[in-house]
Design brief:
The chain is mainly α. Helices cover 63% and strands 4% of the residues. It is built from five helices and three strands. The chain has helices at residues 3-28, 43-46, 49-69, 77-112, 150-185, and strands at 116-118, 123-124, 144-146. The protein has a three-stranded antiparallel β-sheet, with no helix packed on it. The longest helix is centred in the middle third of the chain and has 36 residues, at 77-112. The radius of gyration is 21 Å and the shape is elongated. The chain crosses the membrane at residues 9-30, 45-68, 89-110, 157-185. Keywords: Membrane, Transmembrane, Transmembrane helix. It comes from Galemys pyrenaicus.
Length: 195
């Protein structure tokens, strides 16, 4: 496969993944679709790993990869293609770092569990000593009284962020290699015109 076509394909995969990550982080800030508990949310929600790491830091490499695989305005011919591929190399490395940040924060959030009001009327992390075993023991989920369904909300959205960030690491890593090949070997396209 041509390095340009591969870059475009990977970029078109990264863009929706980054948008899913941003939306998931936004939903984490409104448990049970309400903003009533904003001051009581888990610290991992406020780290904005889905918005910054898996979102914006991956959106940039996605756009750079699409541009590297297309007919852009960086010049025509081999030099223009290599210039866009070189930008994509640096963007992809940046994207890998962002996806790793999202993965580590989301994984830690799943292990710690959500912050919630427990049955003894305290706002705390009731699952912090369970080492993540609450994920498979749904009877423990009743320990959280408020916000309603906060455990399901956090588990679903942080699990989604873990899955998305793993895919982003793979796609950004493949684009990093692909763009490096494109820098040294050029693009397989004969002519590049303007869009």
């Amino acid at each position: 496969m041509c390095t340009g076509k591969c870059a475009r394909f990977l970029g078109l995969c990264l863009i929706p993944l980054s948008l899913v990550s941003i939306i998931a982080n936004a939903l984490l800030m409104a448990p049970n679709a309400k903003t009533t508990w904003n001051d009581k949310l888990s610290k991992h929600v406020w780290y904005m790993a889905g918005f910054i790491g898996g979102g914006l830091m991956v959106l940039c490499p996605g756009i750079a990869a699409v541009r590297a695989g297309g007919k852009g305005c960086c010049g025509a011919g081999c030099c223009g293609n290599r210039c866009r591929m070189l930008r994509s190399v640096f963007s992809s490395a940046f994207g890998v770092l962002g996806a790793i940040y999202c993965l580590s924060v989301s994984g830690a959030a799943l292990r710690l569990g959500p912050r919630c009001r427990t049955q003894n009327d305290q706002w705390t992390y009731p699952f912090q000593d369970t080492e993540g075993s609450y994920l498979v023991n749904r009877t423990q989920w009743s320990w959280c009284v408020e916000p309603p369904n906060v455990v399901q909300w956090n588990v679903t959205l942080f699990s989604l962020l873990v899955a998305v960030s793993c895919l982003e690491i793979v796609f950004c890593g493949v684009q990093l290699v692909n763009a490096s090949i494109g820098v040294f070997c050029g693009d397989c396209r004969k002519e590049v015109g303007r869009q």
